[in-house]
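Is this the right way to post structure tokens for a design question? Let me know if I should format differently. Anyway, here goes:
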């Protein structure tokens, strides 16, 4: 005669509610990862976590050897907003990049307002730390590093180190010519 714990385990695995839930999870995964990933353009060497969430894959372009960490979200716009990541871009876990935002007009529910879509461009050799948020219309220059938990609301120059909410430049990558160097040299 089977032991009670084995019977309980079999009942829990064969529970119709569990099977239904697993089907819902598989459908959501297909909607938020499998389908959009099939539509996006990516260079060779892409390393993307299976937990990444994608929207409107046809408007997402990833360069060569891009790394997209666990639970990252790349949400391109429904109609025009594109997301482009340059070669060797590195996204730590839970980075959120969106090329779309809702309107904020008073007197109308936010979710019923027209969306505001603007392209997001992340340059080559950019590192976005854990839980960085990048908002629509932002360009992050090649070689930039953005510290964990930062919210990027405006363009960031090449080779900068930026942190904060909103993100602001606090330094420059070692050995890199900065925007300040070019200005001092008359460039």
């Amino acid at each position: 005669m089977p032991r009670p714990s084995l019977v309980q385990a079999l009942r829990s695995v064969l529970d119709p509610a569990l099977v239904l839930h697993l089907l819902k999870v598989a459908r959501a995964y297909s909607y938020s990862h499998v389908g959009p990933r099939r539509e996006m353009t990516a260079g060779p060497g892409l390393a993307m976590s299976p937990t990444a969430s994608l929207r409107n894959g046809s408007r997402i372009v990833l360069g060569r050897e891009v790394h997209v960490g666990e639970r990252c979200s790349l949400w391109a716009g429904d109609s025009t907003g594109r997301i482009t990541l340059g070669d060797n871009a590195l996204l730590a876990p839970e980075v959120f990049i969106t090329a779309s935002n809702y309107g904020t007009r008073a007197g109308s529910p936010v979710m019923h307002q027209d969306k505001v879509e603007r392209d997001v461009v992340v340059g080559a050799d950019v590192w976005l730390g854990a839980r960085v948020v990048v908002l629509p219309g932002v360009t992050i220059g090649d070689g930039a590093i953005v510290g964990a938990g930062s919210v990027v609301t405006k363009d960031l120059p090449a080779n900068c180190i930026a942190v904060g909410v909103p993100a602001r430049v606090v330094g420059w990558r070692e050995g890199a010519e900065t925007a300040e160097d070019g200005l001092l040299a008359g460039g």
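Format looks fine. Someone answered above. Worth noting: DSSP finds three helices and 19 strands in the chain. The CA atoms of residues 130 and 148 lie 5 Å apart.
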